[in-house]
Known about the structure:
Elements: E1 3-10, H1 26-30, H2 38-54, E2 59-62, H3 70-75, H4 82-92, H5 94-100, E3 112-115, E4 125-129, H6 136-139, H7 142-152, E5 159-162, E6 179-182, E7 191-196, H8 217-226, E8 234-238, H9 241-244, E9 255-258, E10 261-265, H10 272-285, E11 291-295, H11 302-308, E12 314-317, E13 323-328, H12 329-332, H13 335-346, E14 351-357, H14 360-363, E15 373-379, H15 380-385, H16 394-407, H17 420-436, H18 444-447
Parallel strand pairs: 1-2, 4-5, 7-8, 10-11, 13-14
Antiparallel strand pairs: 1-15, 3-4, 6-7, 9-10, 12-13
Amino acid sequence: xxxxxxxxxxxxxxxxxxxxxxxxxxxxxxxxxxxxxxxxxxxxxxxxxxxxxxxxxxxxxxxxxxxxxxxxxxxxxxxxxxxxxxxxxxxxxxxxxxxxxxxxxxxxxxxxxxxxxxxxxxxxxxxxxxxxxxxxxxxxxxxxxxxxxxxxxxxxxxxxxxxxxxxxxxxxxxxxxxxxxxxxxxxxxxxxxxxxxxxxxxxxxxxxxxxxxxxxxxxxxxxxxxxxxxxxxxxxxxxxxxxxxxxxxxxxxxxxxxxxxxxxxxxxxxxxxxxxxxxxxxxxxxxxxxxxxxxxxxxxxxxxxxxxxxxxxxxxxxxxxxxxxxxxxxxxxxxxxxxxxxxxxxxxxxxxxxxxxxxxxxxxxxxxxxxxxxxxxxxxxxxxxxxxxxxxxxxxxxxxxxxxxxxxxxxxxxxxxxxxxxxxxxxxxxxxxxxxxxxxxxxxxxxx
Length: 448
């Protein structure tokens, strides 16, 4: 039976703004308080989805969250009508209003960790929503994320959903941004690669000194247990604390993998040789031939990687066995990174082509091509069981671009977040979107 890796891209929400909320994310902090363009952001994301669909890749869409999150503000003590809650938050605690308006759910690499049916004990595709406990503005996402994923992957015969891990620091979980799967074929048993920044309980593991390590070893181990993964199909690796302190807040900022290939920076991990040997041995036992491409620091520095998001790219397998790398425009703007990519693709190696996309609105807020997609490996039967409303087609692309043009603003500043009309605009747009994508009632305003 044929299997596919389907990329479900996050649709940028109507409140896309530069709040500078993510400490440790260089781009997020450096562009704080600038005016954003939600309409342009959403259209840039949709253009990437359409382009990959037209290249023959399976492509889906994942809906954004309701923002501002008035219920979250109510839990923090603001009361009255929805408009009054927003007005009082803007007056008394503007940072909390900004956090409640974050459109960071667009980076669906953080939505969940996904294990394909070929790897799991019960033969179903497993999803665990990420608690994103490190940042308040992201920690409020997982209840809606779970409902949206449940509406997309509803058939319990094929799909299993797990609630987010306990919302405490010891089980900080950032989802697929720290998770990669290696396999010979998407439908065959593979090796799941979990990268963590620190251990909550074992002091033998070093920790970064400047920025927080968001993913814990204990969270990764818990997800592996929930998904019914065997020890012979799992590898854990620690992210280099020094690169976290240089702005590598997730592993997908310093490494990306697909199929049998890991593309990574020389400074990405601790005990790299040991990790590579384990991946090679375990994938070999499952019929695969693990291969790695190391980018040396002498050619591309960690700073180059962070500023260009070279590794926050999509590594895609083509029908002829070669690989395509999807990178943001910022890679072309970095002389060292662009020269490295030219040398890489002309060498006749595994990665034969690079395609560049303009994702400036997302990039300025700290997320590139890899952040914008959640990968789900599905066989033909499972793909047929996915809610068809979320699978990208040419007609759906046309409908969604019209929807964005109709509902999104082309400029948004911090002061605009205090406008109660923005909440009404967002709810109107999302109510229409759930009908377009055939999701049913997934947002709090539709349920309560």
